[in-house]
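job 3f2a | input accepted
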Amino acid sequence: MERGEILSSISSYFESREEIHTVIVYGSVADGSSGRDSDVDIALASFTALDYKILVQMNADLQIRLHRNIDLIDLDKAKGLIHYKIISKGVRLKYSSRELTGHMIRALDFKTDFLPQLQAMQIKRIEKTAYGT
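job 3f2a | predicted structure (133 res):
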């Protein structure tokens, strides 16, 4: 199944699910680098808490529909780098502008406040490994 077919199938699956206001595909399918055996990473947000049983059922439905492993994540519970990557690089298939704005603000806060610190720590770790300093 090609990228466009995957995105279209996911979009149609969630189209009638009114409780889900945001669906974002991220990872290799979103950036176009997925292979035949790649999983599909999907972030969801709902107007009510996402129940575990509902997530399991959606996961099973999507695996049958797409013939791929599915990795679902509750966007409202995502934090840090994963949240930032979902918001900044993901393909938005369904969203409420109002709800998405809150996630965009959280992602921007992470980018301006924590990402520079994280990058500095990674550079230090690389230098320590490479140069023993």
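job 3f2a | The chain has one domain: 3-131.
job 3f2a | closed
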